[in-house]
Fold these 2 entries.
Entry 1:
Amino acid sequence: MQIPDDVSDRTPPIRDAASVVLIRDTQDGPEAFTLTRASTMAFSAGATVFPGGGVDPGDALPDADFDAVDLPWWAAAFDDDEDAVRRLLVTAVRETFEECGVLLARTSDGGGVDPRAYDAARQALEAHETTLAEVFEDHDLRPDFSVLRPFSRWTTPVDQPRRYDTRFFLAALPSGQQAVHTTGEAVATRWMGARRAAELFRDGDTDLMPPTWSQFRELGRWDSVETALAAADEAPPPRVTPTIVPDSSPRRVRFPHDEEYYADSPAHLTPGS
């Protein structure tokens, strides 16, 4: 069979992305911070998601900021190269700061930070008027990558008009910080545990795409932030590329535990990333 010469032109490029499952403890187990994306967004409009987004050209930091980072370990965890890991870690910190005002950073002497003191810088960052490196240099800050753990890696199905290779990170809400609604890309935010997320999904009160639903399913295995982080340290993160079920109507995708997903909410049949 001859492949048309222009097939690569018709295949959408895959954009690297990072998403952070930011968690905190409750009496019912860990819960995660979520955003409901605006209906005007080009991708996942109206869906409930975790803070995150695509890698930007400016997502870079000085080499010294990675001195304490085990880059080979991260590269092995995500099956990535070390340069990609650097960019993804920076994207995770930037997106978390932009989208919920949580700053995964320390002062130059190792102290904690109050993100509210840097809100003007956060707004400039979200408006693409500055870079994370410039924000950190201007305010004498250093990234705190130690709070991040690899969680999973999901790639959008091959026939979708927009494709992302998203690395999901797990992170505990830093002590003394609050996650808030900061971004215009979202119309609402809320904290949800795995059980509550499943209930809202089944009732049709929230739209969880397969990757988001799957992160909540995994989160529901643990009874505390500590046990969740420990498990993420030890187990290699799953790598998933959903596939479209041929001739399915409404369209379905195959991925681990997909039958449980569709049984939970038959109304939600749009394939996710």
Note: The two ends are 30 Å apart (CA to CA).
Entry 2:
Amino acid sequence: MVEHTWEEFIQFSREGYEQVQRELKEVNMLIKQTAAEVDRFAQANSRAVARTRQIEGSFDTVPREDIRKAYTALVENQRRLFTMRGQLEKLQSDQKHLSRIADIYQRIMEYTAPGDVVTTDEETAEEEESYTPLTTVISVIRAQEEERLRLSREMHDGPAQSLTNLVLQAEICERLFERDPERAKVELEELKKNVVSTFQKVKTFIFDLRPMMLDDLGLVPTLKRYVNGLKETGVTGISIQVHGKDRRLNQYKEVTIFRVVQTLIHIARNQSQATEIKITLEMGEEEVRLHFESNGRGFELDQDLTSMDADRLGLPTQKNRIEALGGNIQFESAPGQGFNVRLTLPAPPDEE
């Protein structure tokens, strides 16, 4: 049995609160600086828009090079403006996230009675289910906020930016219809290609957000479709093999495994720079086993996941999720040795 006094717990909360306050102060300063940059780019964008409208008023007399430069400047200014707005939104989201954590620390310090004792014992764990460790609460909040930030960035950098470009292309076509039909036809062809590309990005985004076929067909078909979808977008060197009888699992377990695979692929490709990824899924009668192998440059990773890389990549959160379901997950990586993962999750037949 391990005993912790409330004084120790409060001191831990107080230190955490002070750290969060320091981080909040830094974020607030960055928000102020970024907001100023957004205003500056917004003004530059207004000037670029005014310039293009001026050119549109005398389209036939303005040299083609001047037209190209004007529209290039407009697109570039809009790109920078959207990028800075995205950074501002991320900082504001970080600000809200830190404020929530600070509020948790405050509530703990306000409502905890000094001198009480917290006892934890594996044999009495069921009796103490109502007690939620602070680190678990923070981990859940952090995981939720990180997912929201990821989706926000992907939407901003992908579909949102593409839709903006489509609007601009449509306006160019509109101006060219009467003045240069042949050039308008070329622009329309390009616009059509971009519409198809943007539509595919939106479909991919929706699938990543919540693949409906996961509810309808289950884990195995969804994982295969996800891997094939990556291949269709130009991602090479990725394969998946499934052994055993395909069957349905509890919905929350299917979602958990799918999200873990998504995260592992993202880490392997973006952090480890992997060019070959092999996923093996074994559907056993009592458990599901996942073996993830990839090459690449790898990264520093210790067994207890206390390294900066492990924390930054969210590996402790993934480990907590799997262990909360009674499973086990092991990560292996080192510089020059790729990134490999083994996952085991109980899945008896009576859960189907």
Note: The longest helix spans residues 6-57.
